[in-house]
Each structure stands twice: as C-alpha cells, then as structure tokens.
Write a structure and sequence with these properties.
By secondary structure, this protein is of the alpha/beta class. The protein has helices at residues 7-14, 18-26, 44-53, 76-87, 101-111, 126-137, 174-182; strands spanning 4-6, 33-34, 40-43, 67-72, 93-97, 115-118, 143-147, 164-166. It contains seven helices and eight strands; from the N terminus they run βααββαβαβαβαββα. The protein has a five-stranded parallel sheet, with helices on both faces. It has a three-stranded antiparallel sheet with strand order 1-3-2. β4 (67-72), α4 and β5 form a beta-alpha-beta unit.
C-alpha cells in the first residue's frame, strides 16, 4: 500500500477530475502537503478520511488499479513489440489499442489514460501533436511516448515535447526501455519481471 499519492493518482482513485480534487484541497476538505520540489502529495490516511467523509468507494485503495496505456501505433511490428513489453507489467498496465485517428481522439477523452504511446504520421509536427494530446487530456496528467524515425527527432528549444521519444529498432530491447521510461513514475517493485521500474 502506498503511503502518499500525487494529486493525479488521488483524483483517479476518487473518480474525480484533477481540477475538482484541487478545489477540495483548497477548501480544506482534503489535507495535502507540498514536497520540497513544490509537488502536491496526499497522505494515504488523509485520502481515506476524505473518501469516507464524502462516501467515495475505496475499493482501489488497497490494490492500485491498472493504469490504461492508450496505444496508437500503425506499424504492426512496433505495436507487437510494445504489447509484449507491456506484458511484463501485467496487473499494473492495461493496454488499449486503437486503429485510427478518430478512434484515438475519442479514447483519449473517454478513457483518461495514464500513458499514451503514439506513432505519428511521417512529417507530423511533433510538438504540435503533443500540445493537441495534452489539450484532450486536461485536467488529467498524462505521460506521452512517441515512436518516431531518427530523421524526425529534431526539436527546437522550448517546444512542447513528449516525456519519452524512441526510435524503434534503434537498439535491442527498445520496446521494454520505452515502457520502463514511460511508466517510470510507478513505484519500484510493481513490475512483474526484469528490471524494476523507478
């Protein structure tokens, strides 16, 4: 069991949007504190008290729910390797594969994924794609991984960047490294096999 939660984790556990959760914090209904880096944290006991006070089901507190990973990868070989890599996180990560852009847009808003892995079309404005995805996921925080060919890796300073960028087939085990880097916010030991996350 975790001792503390980020505001995004607490919001997901309560079934609330991040903005709503922060409103409850500012009203004093949910006690929180800030880390030395300025990030909000909620102690487990304070989250339990809040959920009891407001009759919010607590069935996810003892067992962390699976985190949805929305996958929109058009190259079948890359998609298969990512799915195999996610199997190492069974019970922690739940892959959801979408085939087309319209379906992807729908699932970004409806699924509220914790992670998104996208293979943008060749020549896509990568920073623009990241901004568009982030607009669809507000207020929920999301970590984005893009699979891009090496020739499209150039960024200008200050552009909106994904958390993880991988060149598929660039090295042995690239898919496992991609998932590890993307889900690095999950506590150590939650991964089923191989190198621990964290």
């Amino acid at each position: 069991m975790k001792q503390s939660y980020t505001s995004g984790e607490a919001a997901r556990l309560c079934g609330l949007g991040l903005t709503t959760l922060k409103r409850w914090i500012s009203r004093g209904a949910l006690k929180s504190y800030r880390t030395p880096g300025g990030d909000l944290r909620i102690l487990h006991r304070n989250l339990v008290d809040f959920m009891r006070d407001y009759d919010i089901p607590m069935h996810y507190l003892d067992e962390e729910p699976e985190r949805n990973v929305l996958i929109h990868i058009k190259t079948p070989e890359w998609r298969d390797k990512i799915l195999v890599a996610i199997e190492l996180w069974e019970g922690v990560l739940k892959p959801v594969v979408v085939e087309d852009d319209l379906e992807f847009g729908h699932f970004v808003g409806a699924l509220r994924p914790a992670y998104i892995i996208v293979e943008p079309d060749r020549g896509t404005d990568v920073p623009g794609r990241c901004r568009a995805i982030r607009r669809l996921t507000v207020p929920d925080p999301v970590r984005i991984a893009l699979l891009v060919p090496e020739e499209e890796l150039a960024y200008r300073q200050g552009e909106d960047r994904p958390e993880v960028v991988f060149v598929p087939e660039s090295e042995e085990g690239w898919a496992e490294l991609c998932i590890h880097d993307l889900a690095g916010d999950i506590g150590a030991g939650e991964r089923r096999g191989g190198r621990k996350a964290g």
